[in-house]
Amino acid sequence: MKRLSDAIQSKECVSGYTHDYYRYPARFSPGFARTTIETFTEPGDLVLDPFMGSGTTLVEARASGRHSIGTDISSLAVFVARTKTTVLHRKDIESIRAWSLSVLDRLNLRGSCEPSSGEVRSHYQRNINSPATWPVRKTIQLALDQVNELDTMRQRRFARCALLRTAQWALDCRKEIPSAQDFRTQFLNNLEQMLAGAVTFRSAVRASQKKFGLWPISVMCRERSAIGVETDSVFRESGPPKLILTSPPYPGVHVLYHRWQVMGRRETPAPFWIAGSQDGHGASFYTFGDRKQQELVGYFQKAYEAFSSVASVADSKTMIVQMLAFSEPNWQLQEYLRVMKKAGLSEIKFRDLANDADGRVWRQVPNRKWYATQKGTLGGVARLCCFIGFPNLILQ
Fold first, then answer.
1. What is the pLDDT of residues 138-178, one digit of tens each?
2. Which of 52, 59, 314, 332 could disulfide-link 326, Cβ–Cβ 3.0 to 4.6 Å?
């Protein structure tokens, strides 16, 4: 419990293994995920994250010798999670490094690139075709044209992810856009850092396999809603998970999962273009509904439907751990708990973990790109609660 408490309150930056591949919004700490997995499961157990985002839970599960399944409604999240949980072999790393060095001279603004379709230009490249941003946009396109030179899908995904990370550095929330030369330099630096993380991750996975005698350690990333997940055939084959570790959309807190903001607050869906994924949905699609809706009726209805399905794939031995932020916890927490109870979940309070009179674990989360509806909290601090529970025995 002491280790888990320290992990929940940790202020360490997200780092290690493949966690730096992409700065997905509202990530939780890898240390928290690792400690929770080690506290509530044994090697060889199954861990589920029904709102996996960029796959922090799955990366730590695989490195710790646990099987894992993740689902997410966002194709961008699935792309990033698959890339982060893929073990690269030595040949993959050699091929990627050789490709990056050979392609560098071809990332020249005078060079020609494959023309983008009208749909790509009008939708996925929205707000990145200005005089300030077009050098970066063209450099990205030139690099994407060369990705198919790599031999395997896992190598191509890795290269796209390196471009995605670099484009995020160059465009997202930047007032001044870097030059094409700076972009090329940063791309190589990012790629080398990511390869180093891939080597560390591979070593951890192999060490767990050897230590626990597990081969292989399975990871599945599925693009689908948590609603109706009990109908997925994968759970008929795998059985109930031992741990469900997740961070669902936050009530009343706007997290921009599907867009970058370019030169102010002009939004672009460019990350989906770079990842080779599809996107045609508004913000509320990814967040259980409009955060401005009165009493968040739509949000809580979606939360009920999702966790009813999640409870259906669990059994009485499954522990469910959620990390959740609230813009107005005074009323949102009570409504959330009511919905969880209706969905068939019971809250567990650990006295050794509690740091508040209500018997729960709370922490302040500063400097995150969350946009709360409560006046005065824009871009500021949200209160975060670690909710631990399990399916009611009456459901079994």
1. 999 999 999 999 999 999 999 999 999 999 999 999 989 99
2. 332
Quick check: 260 and 171 in contact, CB under 8 A?
yes
Identify the segments of the chain with pLDDT beneath 50.
Answer: 369-382, 393-396
Fold of the 2-85+215-395 domain? Rossmann fold (3.40.50)
Q: Pick left, alpha or beta for residue 392 (phi over 0 → left; psi -120 to 50 → alpha; otherwise beta).
A: beta
Q: To which residue do tokens 């409504």 refer? A: 335
Query: Which residues are CB-contacts of 193 (< 8 A; sequence separation ≥ 6)?
Result: 20
Q: Which residues make up the CATH 3.40.50.150 domain(s) of the chain?
A: 2-85+215-395
**Angstrom distance (rounded) from CA 84 to CA 86:** 6
Q: Which two tokens stand for residue 289?
A: 């509904």
- Burial track 6-21 (b if 16+ CB lie within 10 A, e otherwise): ebbeeeeeeebbbbbb
Which amino acid is located at 342 in the chain? Answer: K
Alpha-carbon gap, residue 194 to 23, rounded angstroms: 13
pLDDT digits (tens, 9 = 90+) for 234-254: 988 899 999 999 999 999 888
